[in-house]
Amino acid sequence: MxxxxxxxxELKNLIDSGxxxxxxxxxxxxxxxxxxxxxxxxxxxxxxxxKINLIEKEKPSYYLCGIGxxxxxxxxxxxxxxxxxxxxxxxxxxxxxxxxxxVECG
Length: 106
Description:
With about 110 residues, the chain is α/β, with parallel strands linked by helices. The chain has a single domain (about 5-100), classed as Oxidized Rhodanese, domain 1. The protein has five helices and five strands, in the order βαβαβαβαβα. The protein has a five-stranded parallel β-sheet with strand order 1-5-4-2-3. Strand 2 (about 20-25), helix 2 (about 30-35) and strand 3 form a beta-alpha-beta unit. The protein is globular and about 35 Å long.
């Protein structure tokens, strides 16, 4: 199954519907602390191999970074080792913030 993309609007609708998904944030700790989507899992790309076990293999996962490049890199790696239902959030946290959606800080 190829890597898919979704817009921030699609992700927001999914979150609001209460559907089960995991949001994997591959940015670094300072970026995550500055602004993040509620309930997203921090799995920095620089520590990805050590934290890969935090990602549930059987659950759809949405990958987020600043604008999408690191998220795609993470999803491509996971696809190569057998993960499925990989979705990259198009535009990353930047698009999420620009759309006016809520973020947590700290």
